[in-house]
Structure formats: C-alpha cells, structure tokens
Amino acid sequence: MFEARLLIRVASSILLLAVVALATANANNFSFSTDRMTTVLAKGKEHTILSGNAKITNGDTVITANQIELYGPSFRYANCTGDVKVVDKKRGITLTAQKLYYDRTEDLSRVEGYAEMQDTKNELVVKGGFLENRGKEDVTIVQIGVRILKIADKQQMVCRSEFARYNRKTDNLVLSGTPVVYWKGDEYHASQISIDLKTDEISLEGEVSGTITSEGGNGPTSSGSGASATSNSTSSAGSPSQTSPATSGSTGTTATGTADSGSTAGAAGTSGAPGTTNTGNPSGSSSTSSTGTSP
Predict the structure, then answer these.
(1) HSE-CB for 220 with a 13 A CA cutoff
(2) pTM of the model
C-alpha cells in the first residue's frame, strides 16, 4: 500500500513538473513532442529525455533527433543525438549532424564532429569537423577540414581551409589556416582569404600566390578591375603590403602580400602587349617575373 502511494506521488510529481515546464516554455514560444518521455527528479540533476521522433520548436527553429535531453531553467539547454537536423526557416538554414548542443536562450547551436550546413540565401554548402552557429550575431564558425561550396556566376566556387568565419549580416566569408579557393579554373592561396558573397570579390592577404588558367579570369587585382590574364602564371608577394595587380579585364580579386626582404614584387602583365614581361630587380634582391597576355 505504501509503495503504491509512493509511486502515485512520484508519477504526479513528474507530470506536474513536465506540465509546469512546458507551460513556461510555451510562454517563450517553445514546444516539444516525442514518442517517449522520461523525467529525472534527482536534486541538481533534473532533466527530461525525449526518445523516439524527438522534436523541439523554438520560434522559427525546429530540431529533430533520435533523442533529445532537455535541462536547465525552462528547458533552456538541449543535447541532441542521432540523425540531428536543424531547420531555421527565417534564415533559410538547414544543419545536419549526429550530435548537437543547443542553447535556445542565446540561439546558439554547436556541433563537435562532422557537420553540414546549407544556406539557401547565399547558395552555400558548409562542411567541417566543428561548427558553431551564433544566432544573435548571425555568425557561423567552422573548424577542422573546412569545405565550402558556393554557386557564383553560375559556376561552383570551392573553398578549403582549417578555419572559417561566415557573417550573414555582411555576407562576408573569411578563411584562414592554409586557405585555398578554386574558381573558374583559377587557384588562389594566401594566409587569409576574404570573399564578399554579394559581389564574389576575393581578397588575399599575406603570402599570396595564385595560378590563373582561365581566359578572362579573376587574377589578383588591387582595385577589382584591370586586363584579363590568360597565361598559366603565379603571382607572388614582394615587400610588405605589396599589391600585385593583374592585367586589365579581370574583376573582383584583391591581393596583398607580405614576404621576406630578399624577394621582389611580382610584376603586372601589360594590357595590349602580348608576351610582355616586366621584371622587378631592386638592388641586392633577386628578380621575379610574371607574364600576362591581354585578349
């Protein structure tokens, strides 16, 4: 008899806790659903586990997973495991992973392990071994084997690095950690590469190099305009803050390089003079040349 009463009291406490927490959460436009729910009442370890078709909704964000553990005041925190999918309808973002931590008050989601994010607004696909999406700042941080694919000018831009910061407010993508960008048959390397996702302008900073293979390609420029480079050429940085301009006709790539004092600035190709070679040879330094051919 005593055991029966105890079980009834425990069951009633669990139900009351769930109802109160859900009512509080609903006041903040939060809801959840699942096949099974387990609530732990141990002091200091209070949490609720949703198992089987687990789903939580926080405003415009919907998270589904095989299991979701809710804890903290008003179910603020969530640990999601197994086939996790996050859909943010307002931002046009879909995130998939196997494990995800979510702070619904800060609108922050974090994945430690492989993650893939699709951004329909900028036609962007982001992959990496660590991803943190900061909703309030509208910034995504990606680390470890970063791979980013973007459709630009009806062609695929491929970016690789070890670290990336994507700011959706400014439509700016910054790559570092041995970054490289492949676009329209051209290849760009630098210590840091920034991409304006609105204009597709690529800016290179530090230890700049690149291979221009496409006619009318986007060779390194100082102002985003100049003559097109059609040769297989490599641009190299010279003295500190040296800018290496391409020949006229190319658009959208700024190159700023920093190198040792023993090297010279890469010379620019000359518009209207096929096969022209410009060689810079300051006193006491080795020479470097590059050739640009205007169409």
Answers:
(1) 33
(2) 0.67
